[in-house]
Design a protein that fits this description.
A: mainly alpha
Chain lengths: 426, 148
């Protein structure tokens, strides 16, 4: 049992994470298309059906899609937790998540209750399968560190988020919108954003920033205490929300804890010992700065800023960071799987995805964000420009990934023996 | 309390990382005479780290736990994988091919860090657990190991 997680076949087949990573930009393109074809006033209104559809296309189709895919890759490496039947697991989780997300969005467009019913069942299968397996594996891990602890909290809070979501879907199906429905909506959103999404990103950042950029670790207080403080705040928020108490104090604590994480992340990246410019740094920094701005607006804004927050937090903080991570993971996995199969002439990571292509995609992406933000302050015409650029940047993102996968498959289909005649002295 | 296998080798990982960062920076500056020197230093540090594990710590661990085909074998294979990239990097240093060098160094970095995570989070802690009091002794033996 000790060598669990240290055996050769611990990494799942490459098709496991890739299917999740390649699906996400497709959902992003769908989001862009929906924004382009709908009335701007509906998009800017958080309660419109199309907004709810778009938000869930993002949280389920992009955010959960990438996180669930990445977790299957990360658990074995970071936590020594191996999923026994990785392909079967990925088939179930990916198919139900993809179909469930599509049907869920279609319900808010066509208002056919049967769509929501099927979507709810599919999403329930997907998430419950994922979380039950992840919880079982992560709670068996023998040696703990801050990342494993953050992951454990993430799976528990994630499960609660999903259960709240299922409850909300159930009340829509039953046409039973109770008086505390909107409180549950708020709690569901907060658990999703600060619990599910932020916790996993923190957990990963604790490892990845110091290791991959040869930078200083986060202060022990941030690593060891902040995840627990977030759980405590989520619980307090829930009670305050149900009791209709004033939430200002809780919000202040949330902002301090999460902005503290962002501050130390930026600080560590700026003082890294590996100053070689790495294009994924652009995504990390954009992401952490956007997080701080989003938190401050959330705390201080008096009017309804939900649209603006969705852009800053969802696309600015979360999606930027996830794209940056995928740009590192995909070329590395291509290289890793080819080398492990015995191929000798394997392209380097920078040949699998060319840095300049990433850089161009980054600038298109950041300009789409800029126009989305302008749409809030100025004219809704910018919303459509933003959407067009968003579609374009995601097509570019998808293209970058597909090119890497094509290079991979081309080599993987050749015979490794052909190249092994180039023996290298080591 | 004496040094543990975990604390000693983890510290050595960090030292190797820093030496690696120095190497990358030197290549970026394209001062190729300096690169040769720094490359030699990094290679020797890395090899020394592998030797401390493969010649001292792993055999003791295998003897105590009876696990010889498991985690340590996996780690040895990963060491080989890293040395192979390193030898390709050496060719790039010789031919002053900066771009290709960075493609490889990126890969080596990912591989090293993934490897370090496994060792630091599992193997070293397992070793400290199994060896108990003797882990201090293993650290001393590793420190005494001569550089090749």
């Amino acid at each position: 049992m000790f060598n669990e997680g240290l055996s050769l076949d611990q990494a799942p087949p490459i098709s496991v994470p890739f299917r999740f990573f390649l699906t996400a930009p497709v959902f992003a393109i769908i989001i862009g298309a929906l924004i382009l074809t709908n009335d701007a006033t509906l998009i800017l209104n958080r309660y419109s059906d199309i907004s709810i559809a778009i938000v869930h296309l993002f949280t389920l189709g992009i955010l959960s899609m990438i996180i669930v895919g990445a977790m299957q890759q990360m658990m074995p490496v970071l936590a020594g937790a191996v999923i026994k039947k990785p392909i079967l697991f990925a088939n179930i989780v990916h198919t139900t998540l993809t179909l469930g997300t599509i049907l869920f969005a279609l319900y808010f467009i066509f208002h056919l209750k049967v769509l929501l019913m099927i979507a709810t069942v599919l999403l329930a299968i997907s998430f419950i399968t994922f979380f039950i397996v992840a919880i079982r594996l992560l709670f068996k891990v023998k040696f703990l560190n801050s990342t494993v602890i953050a992951m454990r909290i993430f799976v528990i809070v994630g499960l609660i988020t999903i259960l709240l979501g299922l409850h909300l879907a159930g009340s829509h199906i039953a046409d039973n919108i109770g008086e505390n429905h909107y409180s549950i909506v708020s709690i569901h959103i907060l658990f999703g954003m600060f619990g599910f999404a932020s916790l996993i990103i923190m957990g990963v950042a604790f490892q990845v920033i110091p290791m991959f950029y040869v930078a200083k670790s986060f202060p022990k207080f941030i690593e060891n205490k902040i995840p627990f403080i977030i759980v405590f705040l989520l619980a307090a928020y829930t009670m305050f929300e149900i009791a209709s108490f004033d939430l200002t104090v809780i919000k202040v604590f949330f902002v301090f804890s999460i902005a503290g994480f962002a501050y130390f992340g930026i600080h560590s990246l700026n003082n890294r010992k590996r100053p070689i410019f790495d294009v994924t740094l652009l995504y990390w920094k954009l992401s952490l700065y956007m997080l701080i701005v989003a938190l401050l607006i959330w705390l201080f804004a008096k009017d309804d800023v939900t649209y603006l927050l969705s852009i800053l937090f969802g696309l600015g903080f979360l999606y930027s960071l996830l794209q940056g991570m995928i740009y590192k993971i995909i070329p590395f996995l291509c290289w890793f799987h080819l080398t492990s199969k015995g191929y000798f002439t394997v392209p380097t990571m920078r040949e699998l995805i060319v840095e300049d292509m990433i850089r161009i995609q980054f600038y298109i992406y950041i300009s789409s964000l800029l126009f989305f933000i302008l749409a809030f302050f100025l004219s809704s015409i910018f919303l459509y420009i933003g959407a067009a650029l968003f579609i374009f940047s995601n097509l570019f993102f998808l293209l970058n990934l597909i090119l890497a996968v094509k290079k991979y498959t081309k080599i993987a289909e050749s015979d490794p023996m052909d190249m092994s005649s180039f023996q290298m002295s080591s | 309390m004496s040094e543990t296998i975990s604390s000693f080798l983890t510290k050595d990982h960090r030292d190797c990382d820093e030496e690696f960062a120095v190497l990358e920076n030197t290549v970026a500056s394209e001062n190729w005479t300096e690169v040769e020197k720094v490359f030699g230093k990094f290679t020797s540090d890395l090899q020394h780290h592998f030797d401390m594990e493969e010649k001292v710590m792993f055999p003791t661990f295998e003897e105590r736990t009876g696990m010889s085909g498991g985690p340590t074998q996996m780690m040895r294979m990963e060491h080989q994988q890293m040395l192979q990239i390193l030898s390709q990097m050496k060719d790039d240093v010789a031919s002053k091919n900066k771009d290709h060098f960075f493609g490889l160094s990126e890969t080596l970095m990912m591989l090293m860090q993934q490897h370090n995570m496994k060792e630091e989070q599992m193997l070293y802690r397992m070793a400290d657990n199994h060896l108990g009091e003797d882990s201090g002794l293993v650290v001393t033996q590793m420190k005494d190991l001569e550089r090749v």
